[in-house]
Amino acid sequence: MADSKREIERKYEATEATRLPDLSRVAGVSAVDHLGVSELDAVYYDTEDLRLAADSLTLRRRTGGGDPGWHLKLPVATGIRDEIRAPLSDTLPPELAALIRSRVRNAPVVPVVRLRSARDVHHLTGPEGVLLAEVSVDRVRAERLQGGSADTARTARAAWTEIEAELADDGDPAFLDAVERRLRKAGVRPSASPSKLARALAETGPKRKPAGERSRPRTAGDHVLAYVRHQITAIVALDPAVRRGLPDSVHRMRVATRRLRSAFRTYRKILDRTVTGPVAEELKWLAAELGIDRDQEVLDERLRTRLDGLPRTLVLGPVRGRLRIWSVARRTGSRRRTVAVLDGSRYLTLLETLDALLADPPLLPAAAKPPGKALPRALHKDHRRLAHRIAHALELPPGPERDVALHEARKAAKRARYAAEAARPALGKPARKSAKRLKAVQGVLGDHQDSVVAREALRALAVQAQLSGEPSFTWGLLYGQEERTAGARERELPGVWAAAAGAEIRAARES
Predict the structure, then answer these.
(1) How far apart are CA 152 and CA 309, in angstroms?
(2) Beta strand extents in 317-471 (DSSP E only)
């Protein structure tokens, strides 16, 4: 079984002659314990075209030291990574293979670099011997493995010395600032390489031209493709988080699929719909599959919040227990299904298709136009669609038909908002204001729809309780609260929509 930890560390340049300064003078340090030197031997794995390294992921099999085994490091922020560990084995553990699948797809993972390090370890401890950080001087020997075998491959070599300061579990990151100040005072400077692997690849491989920044978007097509690329990157990057069940990961991945699909539909004059249409259908499928887990997550949170808000005297019967059992049963099934989708060939084919689309974008002649002319037309069209759907919904009497119409308006509001967000880098303030107003409309319509779904669930829970001989009073009370919420959102909608419509008119004048 794999386990994980949050790794917060900093690396510094050093030489063979470098000695650590007196770190006992760092604020908060009571003692510096020298643990001696340990020998580490790590083989790093990647695809032959280094897809993991391109996204700052590292995968290694390491022996020696206190934590031998397989280690996968996923970037979180500068100097912060999540390290997923699995026991030592001859082959890549399946649980780690799953976490890199969105990057490597069907490409084989082979040894690319071997690092052997002599690590001189020091523990910085505070009062009562509490570990604050580990500081080590690492003397590293790197071998570039050009073939698939660590034993027979041709190699290129490099060697260097570095200092590594790693924060103890649950430590305050500010402590590393104090350590760095002491190191800098002694003439030690931060490393230019974010990791040992990055340095090994740079020093043992062929010289590469710097990737550099992408040229600034100039045309309407440039802006749309930049937005499309951002969403595709998000889908790939969020895959491991969804597999790990991290908070909000399913929601964020689902939003990225929706934004991408929305861009294809809104900007059909810029991207050829005959190419993007089939891709959009696959994105719709993925969003629906992710929605099974995400919708249950939202519903669970809503019902628990409602229940927590009731006075204890109004909670009759085993309400919390029934809600918990109902929730666990539904979430367990949906979670398994989500992971199965990510493991399936259909999903991997979609990722390959998205890569191909970026490599050869299906741009239409309108893509060459200035963004100030092409993008506003698409935004106005989405806005008109939303206006029609809201007007239709508000003409209907309260009831199931109006609920359905308001849900359709909600989907149109999302599309219009995403279109405005995509155009914001090109159109600036008018698009930003429009997106903000449309988000408010979406929020009202979203809360209304969540209330519709919650009432359906509450009715089912009430029926289950009654059939089991339990009081159904509390479920009925919560149902009534949701009815009032839906009514309040319907009364709120005209005013929120009027503000959004006014912002659209002003944006049209400015564009």
Answers:
(1) 67
(2) none
For residues 220 and 371, is the Cβ–Cβ distance under 8 A?
yes
pTM of this structure = 0.86
Give the model's pLDDT for residue 505.
52
Tell me which residue of 269, 273, 277 sits closest to 366, measured CA to CA.
Answer: 269
The alpha carbon torsion through 372, 374, 377, 383 (nearest 10 deg) reads -80
pLDDT at position 137 is: 96
- As a whole number of angstroms, the distance between CA 142 and CA 121 comes to 20
Tokens representing 385 are 């669609």
pLDDT of residue 408: 96
What is the Cα–Cα distance from 458 to 474, expressed in whole angstroms? Answer: 10
The per-residue pLDDT for 208 is 60
Return the structure tokens found at 31.
């003692």
Per the CB < 8 A criterion, the answer to whether 485 and 401 are in contact is no
Take residue 409 and report the two structure tokens written for it: 């308006």
CA 402 to chain centre: 35
User: In a 3-state reduction of DSSP, which class is residue 357?
Assistant: helix
Low-confidence ranges of the chain (pLDDT < 50): 147-153, 212, 509
Q: CA 75 from chain center: how many Å?
A: 11
Residue by residue, DSSP assigns 437-497 as: HHHHHHHHHHHHHHHHHHHHHHHHHHHHHHHTT---HHHHHHHHHHHHHHHHHHHHHHHHH
Q: Dihedral of the CA atoms 106, 107, 111, 113 (nearest 10)?
A: -120
CA angle 240, 302, 409 (to 5 degrees): 85
d(CA 121, CA 130): 16
- Among 368, 409, 403, smallest CA distance to 487 is for 403
Give Cβ neighbours of residue 125 (< 8 Å, ≥ 6 apart).
Answer: 29, 30, 31, 32, 33, 131, 132
> What SS3 class is residue 393?
helix
Q: Classify the C-alpha dihedral 106-111-113-117 as positive or negative.
A: positive
Contact between 238 and 256 (Cβ < 8 Å): yes
Q: Which of 166, 196, 162, 183 is nearest to 9 (CA)?
A: 166
Q: Give the residue among 140, 64, 153 at the shortest CA–CA distance from 111.
A: 153
The SS3 call for residue 297 is helix
280 contacts: CB under 8 Å, gap ≥ 6: 261, 264, 265
Amino acid at 374: A
Greatest distance between any 2 Cα atoms in the chain: 82
Distance CA(366)–CA(108), nearest Å, equals 40
348: left (phi over 0), alpha (psi -120 to 50) or beta: alpha
Sign of the four-CA dihedral 304, 309, 310, 312: positive
Task: Give dist(CA 251, CA 93) in Å, integer.
Answer: 27
> How many Å apart are CA 280 and CA 260, to the nearest integer?
8
pLDDT of 69: 95
| Other beta carbons within 10 Å of 501 | 16
